[in-house]
Amino acid sequence: QMAASFCRTTCAFIWMFGVVSATRVYPPNEVTLLDTRTVPGELKWAANPTEGGWEEVSIMDEKNIPIRTYQVCNVMEPSQSNWLRTDWIPRSGAQRVYVEIKFTLRDCNSLPGVTGTCKETFNLYYYESNNDREHYIRESNFLKIDTVAADESFTQVDIGDRIMKLNTEVRNVKVTTRKGFYLAFQDVGACIALISVHVFYKTCPLTIRNLATFPDTNTGADTSSLVEVRGSCVNQSEEREEPKMYCGADGEWLVPIGGCVCNLGYEENGGACQVCKVGFYRAVSTDGACSECPPHSHSEKAGTTVCDCNPGYYRSETDPASMPCTQPPSAPQQLISEVNETSVVLEWSVPLRLGGRTDIRYSVDCLLGSPDRPLGAQLCLPCGPDVLFSPQQSGLGATRVCVSELQAHTRYTFTIGARNGVSQGHTAGARESVSVTLTTNQAAPSPVMSIQASDVTRHGVSLAWQQPDRPNGVILEYEVKYYEKERSYRIMKTASRSADITWLNPLTVYVFHVRARTAAGYGEFSVPFEFSTNSDPLPLIGNAANSTLLLLSISGGVVLLLISTTVFIITERILMRASLHPFQFIFSNHSPPPPLLPSPSEGVRIYVDPFTYEDPDQAVHEFAKEIDASNIHIEKVIGIGEFGEVCSGCLRLQGKREIYVAIKSLKAGYADKQRRNFLSEASIMGQFDHPNIIRLEGVVTRCKPVMIITEYMENGSLNTFLRKHDGQFTVIQLVGMLRGIVSGMKYLSDMSYVHRDLAARNILVNSNLVCKVSDFGLSRVLEDESEAAYTTRIPIRWTAPEAIAYRKFTPASDTWSYGVVMWEVMSYGERPYWDMSNQDVIKAIDEGYRLPPPMDCPACLHQLMLDCWQRDRTHRPSFTQILNILDKLIRNPTNTLRRTGGERPVPTLLEPVGGPEFVSVWSVEYWLQAIGMDMYRDTLTAAGYTSPDSLLTLTQQDMASIGIVTPSHQDQILASVQQVLLSHMQQIQEQMQDSMVPV
Ligand code: ACK
């Protein structure tokens, strides 16, 4: 009775709290095998004992739907074993099943008088079987799954307001041996209500990973087992790598491996492959999504893998589908040709339209003649295989080619074609090439290939040779150079292709070279040919008559010497004009250089002072080209000049290559005088044409701002440049810079131009370290200044004392400044006289002090500086002399440039000049160079004529005897000897006097 009353109470509570609902939602990875809440009607499970044990009770859930429960509550009686067995449950392929039991259990303590018999657990069993209708199963055949206890239990039977808890316990068990199984609940004396029993197994549900479908998969038998599953690619995709995944025991998919990719023309979208829309494409499997067709292409249907090019656009075989469609290039532009004898440099600009590509290549077509020939004229022929193209004829990446080995004086047509990756079979609509027709210049003849000797005698040999392969014009004459080995050479000229060489030494090997000359000049000498003369027992000279003749000649020579002095100037002019006889001998051991002093007969160009023009614009347009401002493209400001900004930029003139230029501009608000002074620099610069003088490109005067355009010098001014590169050059490099400057200064002084502001700051340096004299602003301006203005503007440290004192500006005062520039160069841009005041500098110079040698400066260079700083300006060397000295130093640097004069780090004292070693800039070599006779240098030195004194005795006969046989040369040398010697001796005397008294 009591038990029945407990049971009713329990059931009433279950219903009231609504803890069980029949409409339950199962997780997707659980497959239900049995759920008592969804079984319609009674369960009718087998109970043992059939009476007084488990009892089936119907209750209502919260939605008033009846559910079936089992209850038992035999707590008062000892030794209870009440069995309740479910119906057969098919396992449906599951290997491990889960049993979820919801139950309520009465706490024994809350039941009065049940001590010892009341239990709070029950047991769960299973039995595997293929028989779905087992009538009777022996209880001992069941296998125990677990003893189940309540986590929560109610303790009081206080029906009014008590809280009751429902227990949920889940157990799992492996069921692999039969098709199904039975479960059993054994009560051992507890008060229990089995509210629901839910039996299920777990699966990994169907899923798509990496575009592969994995089917619904039962989990494995063990709690730790992983079931390997192979996926299959979704529609319109293909395997990238075998797709695999593992189904874990809890119904979760694990470790996806491999996968599939969408076919081309399709893209992935939400685990499926979706077709590319019209206007889109997908060409490579590594691309993620479909892309819009690239420029100049289209697609007309869905699922496109490569878009088609629009009409007139193309794709090369190697172009990727993602690249826009492109076109062939238009023609190259602005073809410029520069003919140099039989070579031509062709340069052009890139085509206006590159067709959207970067793989442009050029090729050169070469035809002999001009395509627009008159009717009936000779057809254009290809140039032939002899013509050389550098770097190559076709496949050129650069816009420049040098064509050489062309025929002289011949008309050629060159066509530059442009092609790119889509040119094959397509055209850009316009002509893709540009042509130029030109005529090559004269060229020197090619070398004579071989020389034959005949009629060899003791003193002579007859030579003969063939005309050069490429005479490149009419051969005017041949020159034969010949010498005994290691001896000085002789030259003979002849108009025919043979020569009889006489006056040779017997039994001696001679080396012969021949070269041809046309109007275009000399060709190269042939390779050397050696022939030997026959033996001769007789001496050439040596009898008494000859000796007497020699003596007579010497005494006559002395008289001649004196006469020749007086007629020096006239003789010199006549001599310079004298031309060579076709069969005359010249003795030398170097090719004669061009005469160093310009011959008066050639006419020396003299600089014209622009201030002599009334109209400054007339002066500037006489000497400078007016440039249209639209041709100038200013890029940046590089400095500030006296009249305004100095900028760099580009200048592009019709038919000429674009060049980089410096642009000096005249600032706004200038006065007329400033404009005139500003433009005077251009008028001066425009008169010069020398590699060491800054080149004027032109002026802009017709619009504002007024500008002067000069060549651009990448390294800026010399002083700043040297300071930036302190200690980084070799002495030879520094001397090379000095040589450039003096060469420019010699040119200026030859043109009778006095610079007046020569200083390292006014020398500009280009990227090849070539130094150029610039800044021609001061020369005239100084002349106009008042005394006060003059003293403030004059660059004291660089200016010769006589120019400071009484404005005596001469080439010799420029020489003084040049000495200071030498010092600046050798000290890497040090300020001359450091921080001494101008007044102190003037005073020190006046007292005879001079700048000491800069650190590591070769003694000979410091000596040359001291020469430039001679107080008496007539004692300073000319620029020609300085040039010769520097050339000699450069040619023979080891002996001359090794000795340094300034081992001290930074000199603080100036050095007094004078002392026992007087300054001498005279040498046989540069004296002979100055008079254009340096081919006799070795002849004279070998004969002992090395000092001014020894030359005093030189006579015409002496000269004849040592091989100076040309009468005009003899005269010229004698005339000059007298002059040079006199002035030199005078100089030495003065210096010796100077050295004895303090200056
Ligand atoms: O020392 P820099 O760089 O060189 O600064 C000055 C500045 O302009 C003012 O005169 C520079 N400069 C002048 N003429 C030229 C030129 N032709 N090429 C390059 N720089 C120049 C000079």
Structure, described:
This protein is of the alpha+beta class and 999 residues long. It folds into seven domains: 30-204, Jelly Rolls, CATH 2.60.120.260; 207-262, Immunoglobulin-like (Sandwich), CATH 2.60.40; 343-440, Immunoglobulin-like; 451-533, Immunoglobulin-like (Sandwich); 610-711, Phosphorylase Kinase, domain 1 (2-Layer Sandwich); 716-780 and 794-891, Transferase(Phosphotransferase) domain 1 (Transferase(Phosphotransferase), domain 1); 924-985, Transcription Factor, Ets-1 (DNA polymerase, domain 1, Orthogonal Bundle). The protein is 22% helix and 27% strand. It has 20 helices and 51 strands. The strands form 14 sheets. Strands 1, 3, 4, 7, 10, 12 and 15 form a seven-stranded antiparallel sheet that branches. Strands 2, 5, 6, 8, 9 and 11 form a six-stranded antiparallel sheet that branches. Strands 36, 37, 39, 40, 41 and 42 form a six-stranded antiparallel sheet that branches. β43 and β44 (645-651) form a beta hairpin. α3 packs across α20 (967-996). It binds 2',3'- cyclic AMP (ACK). 2',3'- cyclic AMP binds at residues 638-639, 641, 646, 662, 694, 710, 712-713, 716-717, 720, 764.
